[in-house]
Amino acid sequence: MKVGVLALQGDVPEHLRALEGVLPKGSLVPVRRPDELSHLGALFLPGGESTTIARLLSESGLWTALAAKLADGLPVLATCAGLILLARDLAPSVGGQDPPTFGLLDVRVRRNDYGTQRESFEADVRVEGVAGRPFPGVFIRAPRIQAVGADARPIAWRGEEVVGVRAGPVWGLAFHPELSGDPRIHQLFLRAASRAHYRT
Predict the structure, then answer these.
(1) Among 14, 15, 49, 176, which one carries the catalytic annotation?
(2) pTM of full prediction above 0.85
(3) Which residue is catalytic, options 49, 178, 186, 197?
(4) 90: left (phi > 0), else alpha (psi -120 to 50), else beta?
């Protein structure tokens, strides 16, 4: 199974390094062009600057191609900015223009709602399906999930607060598992994506 990382902007190298540790050699694809989506069994949407990523998706022709793949059921794990780009509803953010979104995850999200870069933090996160110690969540200018609709369900919590959701093959996280040094979420998602891929 080929696995892609959207490689337009953001913490792309960190995602690639995290995945190189859990994927067979030759199965990882940095995605910069529409044709590179064609044979993927799963895709990671990294953190970064959501407005910049949205603009680059449009300029590269990837927006339309990715929308079609998402509609076709491509498994996706989206972190931070990726979550913003998949959200169905964005609460207005302070002092910034919010990007267009794919509207795929039934959540209401607000950009940068945990504060500035200087207010970034790490916190224990409980993740459905991840056994053992709490997951080390890294929150950097993170979006806050304000509400979860009927078409999505929570899969990750910081205390009682929802910080991750899932709708079928699409996962969205407010934090950065690729910066944690802990591969368990990547492994969990890839197992689920592999099962979906080989059923088709």
Answers:
(1) 176
(2) yes
(3) 178
(4) beta
- Domain span holding position 119: 2-199
- Could you say which of 15, 80, 186, 197 is catalytic? 80
Q: Domain count of the chain?
A: 1
Is 176 labeled as catalytic in the residue annotation? yes
CATH number at residue 129: 3.40.50.880
Q: Would you call 36 a catalytic residue per the annotation?
A: no
CA angle 150/88/52 to nearest 5° reads: 150
Inform me whether the pLDDT recorded for 197 exceeds 60: no
Q: Please write the tens of the pLDDT for every residue from 75-114.
A: 999 999 999 999 999 998 876 788 999 999 999 999 988 8
Q: At what angle do helices 62-71 and 50-60 cross, to 10 degrees?
A: 100
Burial class (CB in 10 A: 0-12, 13-18, 19+), 57: buried
Task: Determine whether 161 is an active site residue.
Answer: no
